[in-house]
Automatic annotation (TrEMBL):
Membrane among keywords: yes
Keyword Transmembrane found: yes
Coiled-coil region(s): none
Protein origin, superkingdom: Eukaryota
The protein's name: Calcium channel YVC1-like C-terminal transmembrane domain-containing protein
Source species of the chain: Mollisia scopiformis (Conifer needle endophyte fungus)
Length: 684
């Protein structure tokens, strides 16, 4: 009797993507793209993929990736495909959205099934250059080749504009997931993924708006570890130091690398803005129309330091993260207003014109509209305010779109009323009257409607008042309420996305030496001119020495804070379980768990050697986090329970034994699938 086939077993024997440990990024992307296109042909919602049988194929894919794939660019490829499918033209059935959601679900479920150390390595793996770019003798160029390179691999000596980086990504992502039958036609067009070189998984997730991925616990532990400095990218400050994600070890790391911790960067940024705001108010209160005072000169230095710091940040991150952070728009406006004030002030002092000088201080007074909210930008790290900011952003977008309709109707009524009242009101007077009527002064329109035209004035004004005060205003409120509801429904995801971008923006700088403003003007004045004749290594050593000399008080403040924090609350790093193992796990019997718990239940597994990143880590034991709890046939039996043995010389019993074993395997497969689903539901 042949046992019936298992549906789960049938799904397992289907072709799964074959990914080698050293396959290039473009091959990994295309293999996964072909699998998604072939296997996901029916539309499903995100919840259906996550909780119902519609997601069986991606569950099987996750099992395959965990057990068989060790390529470090796997997460980068999945998140790149998520962006690719989400940017394709919308189809009637929504299959592309289903594939995009599938890629995002696979990426975080894969991370939840491996050790935390491997999860960090996968998320922070930086896509390497396809061609090795020769080392440049220029020191500044040497410091721009780590995290966000400004050089394309196909043209290594030609820098691209930072603002064009996102355009390159959008252009290249459209050529990634092409069907298998069309791939041969595009083989000669170059690597479509070349624009992604230099990006790690978290950066691609931020660019691709993978908010659900970034909100997962395993990913947020990595983000929060970067924020607190438990995960660092620099071990020491040296002329030949390279950037690499690693766990912070106080015994072996240069303490000056704490200057790169996003928490401290943002803290001193707030202190800088507080001083900036104090100088701003002092200059406005002093308001000397005759000459530049010492306070005003210091304000100019703060303006220059702030502008240079923003320029450096834009060059390092490009438009990828710079445009995502809403506060960067306020920074640009602050700089533009400062430049306008400086030019107007200079013209007024040269011409000795009091009116121009008054205009200069009037321009400077506009800075308060942006500087005061900018110093409160740290509130966006709080869940409440971090949720309100995306809500206001989406509501502002819908408001601008709706005002286009209002402007069209307004121009039409303005033209009609102006022509009807050509003998009574001018164009300017009629414009302000209709604006007042639109914002609620309906009685004003009714008072002048007969002056406009005795016959047509009253009915037209009645129609205008009804359309503006009833139809348009009510519609605008409804649209803004709907926008607010959509964002607030995913409040946690929106907040964590803002927080993640905030952290990545502070940590993705590829410069070894990062000077806090206003100290950043010192290397600009003293070091940059030396690039013309000083060797690169010596120039970098000089920058490091200058950094340590100028930032020693800041390092002292950081040391006092960390020492006091450890003495009061104790030092409990987010990734304390992921450091070098002190005890080796040599067998599965050392796991103190009686039942399988899919999500990182075995914290000790983070200390074992990794099957995904097999480089030496002072560990000898194999990773146990990916073992199937149902592999052991006697696992789960009570201690001392005797297994039932069947005689092997009886054909009937042998057939019955085969059926029982087949049934047991099917039950095991189904149980594993249910346990995996329950585990992912607990994390989603």
């Amino acid at each position: 009797m042949t046992p019936p086939s298992s549906p789960i077993g049938d799904m397992k024997v289907r072709k799964l993507p074959a990914i080698g440990p050293k396959d290039p990024f473009v091959n990994v992307v295309k293999v996964l793209s072909n699998y998604m296109v072939d296997e996901i042909a029916l539309p499903s919602t995100f919840e259906q993929l996550r909780t119902t049988s519609a997601g069986n194929k991606i569950r099987i894919l996750v099992d395959h990736l965990v057990l068989n794939v060790t390529n470090p660019c796997l997460i980068n490829a999945l998140l790149t495909l998520k962006w690719h499918f989400s940017t394709l033209a919308e189809d009637d059935r929504g299959v592309n959205d289903t594939r995009a959601n599938a890629c995002e679900i696979v990426s975080w479920r894969f991370l939840a099934r491996i050790s935390e150390r491997d999860a960090m390595d996968f998320c922070l793996f930086e896509l390497p250059q396809i061609r090795e770019v020769e080392a440049c003798a220029n020191a500044d160029a040497n410091e721009r080749t780590s995290l966000l390179p400004q050089f394309r691999p196909n043209t290594p000596m030609t820098p691209t504009r930072p603002g064009s980086k996102r355009v390159e990504l959008l252009r290249s992502v459209s050529n990634i997931g092409i069907p298998a039958e069309e791939q041969n036609q595009d083989e000669d067009e170059g690597d479509p993924t070349s624009a992604f070189t230099g990006l790690n998984g978290l950066e691609i997730a931020a660019v691709a708006d993978c908010k659900k991925f970034l909100s997962q616990k395993v990913v947020q532990k990595i983000v929060h570890g970067i924020w607190r400095g438990d995960i660092t990218f620099w071990q020491d400050l040296g002329a030949h130091t390279t950037k690499k994600p690693q766990f912070y070890n106080q015994r072996h790391s240069d303490y000056f690398t704490r200057l790169r911790v996003p928490l401290y960067q943002k803290t001193f940024e707030v202190l800088f803005f507080a001083t900036f705001l104090f100088l701003y108010y002092a200059v406005l209160v002093e308001r000397n129309p005759y000459h530049i005072t010492p306070l005003e000169a210091v304000l100019y230095i703060w303006f220059a330091a702030f502008a240079y710091d923003e320029l450096s940040e834009f060059i390092d991150a490009g438009s990828i993260f710079y445009a995502v952070d809403i506060w960067n728009g306020a920074d640009l406006i602050i700089i533009l207003i400062g430049v306008a004030f400086l030019i107007t002030r200079a013209i007024g002092l040269i011409k000795d014109d009091g009116q121009i000088i008054d205009h200069a201080f009037d321009i400077l007074s506009l800075e308060a509209l942006f500087m005061v909210p900018r110093i409160c930008s740290l509130l966006s790290l709080h869940p409440y305010f971090g949720t309100l900011i995306p809500c206001l952003k989406e509501m502002a977008k819908d408001f601008v779109k709706f005002m286009v309709v209002v402007a069209v109707l307004y121009v039409g009524f303005l033209t009609t009323f102006t022509l009807l009242a050509r003998d009574s009101f001018s164009l300017g007077d009629m414009s302000w009257i209709l604006i007042k009527v639109f914002f609620g002064s309906s009685y004003l329109g009714f008072d002048i409607m007969r002056d406009i035209n005795p016959l047509l004035g009253p009915p037209l004004m009645l129609v205008f008042v009804c359309m503006t005060n009833i139809l348009l205003i009510t519609s605008l409120i409804s649209i803004l309420s709907d926008s607010f509801s959509k964002v607030i429904a995913h409040a946690r995801e929106e907040y964590l996305f803002v927080y993640s971008v905030y952290v990545l923006e502070a940590s993705t700088s590829n410069r070894l030496t990062h000077f806090y403003p206003p100290f950043n003007l010192i290397p600009l004045i003293l070091i940059r001119p030396l690039r013309l004749f000083m060797p690169a290594d010596k120039l970098r050593t000089t920058r490091i020495f200058l950094l340590k000399a100028t930032h020693l008080p800041i390092i002292g403040a950081i040391w006092v804070f960390e020492t006091a924090y450890e003495s009061i609350k104790g030092h409990t790093p987010m990734f304390a379980t992921m450091g070098p193992a002190s005890e080796q796990l040599t067998s599965e019997s050392t796991i103190p768990s009686k039942k399988p718990r899919p999500f990182l239940s075995n914290r000790a597994s983070a200390n074992t050697a990794s099957q995904h990143f097999p480089e030496p880590r002072n560990d000898d034991g194999p990773a146990s986090c990916c073992q199937d709890p149902f592999d052991d046939p006697v696992k789960g039996k009570k201690e001392g329970e005797r297994a039932v043995s069947l005689p092997v010389d009886n054909p009937e019993l042998n057939g019955l034994k085969a059926q029982v074993e087949d049934l047991s395997s099917k039950i095991a497969e189904l149980t594993a699938l249910i346990m995996a689903q329950q585990g992912t539901e607990g994390q989603e």
